[in-house]
Amino acid sequence: MKEKYWIAFSSIEEIDSQFIQTLYEYFGDIEKAFNSNEKELERIEGLSIKKAQKFLKLRDKIDIDKTFAQVETKGINFLTLEDEKYPQMLRNISNPPAVLYYKGKLFECNLNKTLAIVGSRKASINSRNNLRKIISGLANTDICIVSGLASGIDTVAHTSAIENNLKTIGVIASGFDFVYPTQNKTLYENIENGYGAVVTEYYPTFEPLRFRFPQRNRIVSGLSYGTLVAEASLKSGALITANLTLEQNRELMCIPGEISNANTEGIYKLLKTGAYMVTESQDILDALRWEINNENNQTQLTLPTMTPDEEIIYDNIQIEEKGVDELLALTGLKLDNLLMNLTTMELKGIIRQVNSDRYIKV
After folding, report:
1. How far is residue 133's CA from residue 127's CA, in Å, rounded to a whole number?
2. How far apart are CA 142 and CA 109, in angstroms?
3. 50, 172, 216, 311: which has the fewest Cβ within 10 Å?
4. Backbone angles phi and psi of 168, in degrees to 5
5. What is the mean pLDDT of the chain?
6. Spatial CB neighbours of 342, under 8 Å, sequence gap ≥ 6
7. Which H/E stretch holds residue 115?
8. pLDDT value, residue 293
9. Could you give the C-alpha distances from 142 to 3, 296, 297, in angstroms and in order?
């Protein structure tokens, strides 16, 4: 049973997928690679002797059957580089995961129409709303949204996918023993229980350490035909993923934002160097040369009937969010009347409250 040797390899924290792949390619057999000795490893061109010695020392402490059983008993599925079902787009990158662990229904996702979405953890309201609007334009299609299950833009990408009847894949930077961030526990469970899959290259006991997040990014972009950057500062993980997208020869796209927002500086840098600008969902389809079934994608918003006062309020938040004080000045309504109408409009689902006393259209 060759699989247990792949799992045993991946359970060693001090080595990486590149090391495992190098040994596998040299020996042509994962069991022989795992059971190799120092003299054999010394013959591999470019292999670090120190890393090889560390591997041998740690390998001898591994109970292969126990390591494999830990994965099976936790209900974790996995694919190795030997598996025919291993995602082809991911296999094509320079350093694919030796083992891809997953929970959920990975093969109910269309791996031929995968779109990565990345952006700031501290995303602005404007960028969140822009992304929701763009994803809603892809509703009820077979496009699969890939992101990193972090807070901010990642969370918006996954939740919007679910709300719009799209499959989604979350790529995490730890093993399945951990949920990070903890507030996304329900989102993890929703994805695993029918809305897509959660995947990782890390053995279940590996913690979400800082250095693993940039490593994770190559899988987010590697699984995808293109990457959409929703918001990014000049020093951000989203820019790392953008650069990986270009290295992997995939399409890079950006949503423009407010030029005064520091989190859009990275966006405009990418746009100036040739990234594809996205202001509506059709731009994504054009960039990736995808066709979708328009019959399944006819989602049209019908607004509830509004009173004259509600129409005045709605007209004043068509473009951007407004606070109560601003709406008082713009609408000419009295405070009690304004607050009553805002509450009614929220209940109708026409508007929603953001940042305490500010309102934006739905």
Report:
1. 10
2. 8
3. 50
4. -145, 145
5. 92
6. 313, 324, 327, 351, 353, 359
7. strand 114-119
8. 64
9. 31, 10, 10
More confident residue, 302 or 52: 52
Bigger pLDDT: 262 or 191? 191
Of 145, 113, 96, 118, the C-alpha closest to 225 is: 113
Instruction: Report d(CA 267, CA 232) in Å as an integer.
Output: 6
**Domain boundaries, given as residue ranges, for the chain:** 1-70, 104-297, 308-361
Using one digit for the tens of pLDDT, what is the confidence trace for 123-155?
998 899 999 999 999 999 999 999 999 999 999
- Does CATH place domain 104-297 in 3.40.50.450? yes
Strand partners, 322: 359
Whether the per-residue pLDDT at 303 is higher than 80: the answer is: no
Return the pLDDT at 11: 97
Q: Where are the alpha helices (DSSP H) in the chain?
A: 3-10, 17-27, 30-34, 38-42, 49-59, 64-73, 88-91, 125-136, 153-163, 185-190, 212-222, 237-247, 265-272, 281-288, 308-316, 324-331, 335-348
**Tokens found for residue 306:** 């509004």
DSSP designation for 278: -
Helix 335-348 to helix 308-316 angle (10° resolution) is 80
Which helix H or strand E contains 354, and what residues bound it? strand 351-354
The residue whose two tokens read 């990565």 is: 116
The whole-angstrom separation of Cα 94 and Cα 97 is 10
Closest CA to 315 of 325, 330, 301, 328: 330
Model pLDDT for residues 325-339, shown as the tens digit of each residue: 999 999 999 999 999
Structure tokens at 343: 């509450």
Report the candidate in 238, 178, 235, 176 with the shortest Cα–Cα distance to residue 213.
238
Tabulate helix, strand, coil % of the chain (nearest 5): 45, 15, 40
Q: What is the pLDDT of residues 251-264, one digit of tens each?
A: 999 999 888 888 88
pLDDT single digits (tens) 82-131? 999 999 999 999 999 999 999 999 999 999 999 999 999 999 988 999 99
End-to-end CA distance of the chain: 54
